[in-house]
Structures are given as structure tokens and as C-alpha cells.
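In the laboratory, one determines a bound structure by crystallizing the protein with its ligand and collecting diffraction data. In a computational setting the workflow is compressed into a single prediction: the sequence and the ligand go in, and a structural description comes out. We illustrate the idea with zinc ion.
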Amino acid sequence: MDVLRELVHRQLTEAVPQLQRYCQQPSIAAQHIGMPETVEFVVKMVTKAGGKAQVLDDCGGNPVIYAEFQAGVNGNQDKTLLFYNHYDVQPPEPLDEWTKPPFGAEIHDGKLYARGAADNKGELVVRLNAISLLMENGGLPCNVKFLIEGEEEIGSPSLPAYLAAHADLFRADACIWEFGSKNAEEQVQLVAGIKGMCYLQFWCHGADVDLHSSNGAIVDNAAWRLVHALASMKDANNRILVDGFYDDVAPLPPELLQMAEEQPFDEEKLRQQLGLRRPLITGDENPNIHLWGAPTMTICGIESGYTGEGSKTVLPRRAQAKVDCRLVPDQSPEDILAKVRKHLDLHGFTDVEVSLLNGEHAYRSDLSHPFVQMVVDTAREAYQTDVVLAPNSAGTGPMYPFGEYLGLDLPIVSTGCGWWNSRAHAPDESIRLADFEQAILHMVLLMREFGEH
Ligand SMILES: [Zn+2]
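The predicted complex, in C-alpha cell form:
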């Protein structure tokens, strides 16, 4: 083990400059900046690590890169591990809030600062260097494939088409998802699924023009209509009132309830970090149970009329709201949309329009699959610290299409090299090089274990 740690440490002389060069290459999908150059860069990294890359561009959007590494002569030819990464990053704005240049990849106090360092250029470099190390020291213990897309930060619109068209290419026995981080307790956080998404837009039109508000004596008001419509969908105790909304929500199985209990939730810390003014809406229940297993309905924004300085007496002609519902396994975004539509009609809001802006199904790996425990055990060994596993993240990502096209029994676990203050999507995004090094060791140990079992 000490020899291995030493090998990983030596690998950094290659891995760190490579990570810096990769982070210095902007690849902002939303702004169409640097995408072809980044594809070329990734292909070169794959080739340098000893793999074969194929750029797929037959399904539109930014290309998807397929990479393949063969198991060595002593490796297990029958086992294939799939890594999911993306080469695009979020826009760096607001630029004046960065204390280091977002594409400078400067290193200060053991941290590398760059847009995309934690999400998830660091992870790709970790994985490729773990592969290089294994290839140079006895050969790869298993086959490895990569799916590296270029549209994750804009919602992965083309990904399902690529998975559908090239399912045979990406077929694998298990999958490591894009990223992960240590929490504020310095525990390694692993996640084996994600929640789904039903993102809704509501519109209410009351007139062709804004009116003098004296007309409030006789004319109905679009903003009030929308507020009443929204209020009809959730009560003051945060119970969602849309008929059938909870029909497909299964209670968490006993083993997950037990996991939830075993993972302490520091409400006070959260309260201080976020400056929360109200108690958590979970009451006496364990918040983990809700984060993992309860669907949500969140008003993300409401807009109508005048909200500028001072007063303006106006009766707005229209109002809109954006609402997201985080879904749990077996709920479907299209079905939720239909139920919301029916609810509005039944409550007399036939004039309130609703449409689905984006929908995604939840995904949860079978936690009893040996691969899940293998990722946990090897993480503990590599990081020498506590490892906490969540059955799914409270957030959303394009995990379901992987199951849909590669098999719904595909175990998927997310892990990476971030830390609790990595600030993904925000100014001063960073990773700590010590975590980066441990993450390489984790991937080395995992591929070895995976090849043996
Ligand atoms: Zn990401």
C-alpha cells in the first residue's frame, strides 16, 4: 500500500500540469466557447493515457467522446467499468467576484483554482491518471470505457440520443458518475442515484394591456389568479395537494431509513451557514429521509406587474411563475404535468397555462449490488477517513438515460475530488491537490478490486 501511495504521488508530476492545461482551455457550452478545441484536447489526453478515442457527432449538439481502454494480459477481460464525465463547464460570470483568473488554473496554498476544476475536469484527469498508473504497473485490471459529453451544464439535451444510438458501445457492468466531494466534516460523500425533475412554467393572462388599478373594482387580476392557483397546490404544512401527486412515491425501505438515522444531520450548522429564518419544514422527522425520498414542489420565481422603486398603481395584464418538482423513483415528469393540469381545471383555473420546460426521471442504484460496497470500501482505504453513502442525491442529473439504454440494473456511484468549499458553478471554484491525489488512489484501488471480482 505504501508503494502504491508513492506511485500515486509520483504520478502528480504528470497529472497536475495536465490538469492545469485542461483547466486553462475554456469550454463554456452555454456561450459556445472553446468546444472543438476542448474535444481535441480530451482526445489527446485519452490517447496519451493509452486509450482509443472516438468522437461521436451523429446525433447533434456538442460531440460525445467515447474512450476505450483494454484490460491488460493479466486483467479481467470480462469486466468493464464505465466512467461518465463532461468536458463543458459553467460560464465563469460574475468575473469580478473571482480572486484568481477563472481559466488561469493557478495553484495557491495547495488548491488549484479554475472554472471546471471541481465540476468536473479534475475528475477526468484523476481517472485518466489512475489508468496510466495501472497500465505502467502491471496492466489494467479490467476494461474501461468513458462517455464524455459536452452539454451537461446546459441540461444534456443530446445525451439520450447518443446513448440510444450507441448503447452497445457504452455497455458496461458498472458506472462511476461524474463527481463528488468531501463534506465539512471531511467525510467522503458518495451518492448512488439522483432525483428526477419536473420543471413547470405557469402563465396567467388577464388582459391585452396593463390597466389602471382603479379597474381592480371590476376586473380580475392575473397576479391574484396565479397566486390562488399556486396556493391551491400546496398547503401551509407543505403537503402537495395535487391529486395523485404521491401515487407513485414508495416509502423508503427499512435499510434506507436505517442509513438515514446513521447519518447525523446538523440542522444548527445549516441554519447558520444559510441564515435560515424559519425552522426546517421536516418537523421532527429526519431531514435525510426527505432529502432522499420525498418529492418537492418549489416556487423558483414569480413575476408580475411593478416591483420597482416607490409605488406604481397598476393592474398587471399577466403573471408567470416557474416551479420545480424534484421527483423520486417511479414518478414521471409527464404524468406529474398531466396531474397538475387536471388539478388546475378541477379548481376552476382553466385559464392558467402550464407547460413542462424540462423533465427527468430519478435513478437509484440497487444498494445491495456488490459494486456499491466496493466503491465504499476502496474509498475508505484510499482516503483513510469516514465515508458516507447516500442512496441518491437531492439534486438531479442525466442518470436515468444510462439505466434506460444500458440496463436499469446498472449500478452507478458518484465520487470525485471536490471538497466542501469547492464552489462548483460559483466564483473561485477550486480543488485541493491533496484530495486530487487521494482520488487517484481511490480509482486505482477500485479498478483493481473490480477486476478481481
Ligand atoms: Zn458536472
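The chain has two domains: 2-193+363-452, 196-249+295-360. Keep in mind that any predicted model is a hypothesis to be tested, not a measurement.
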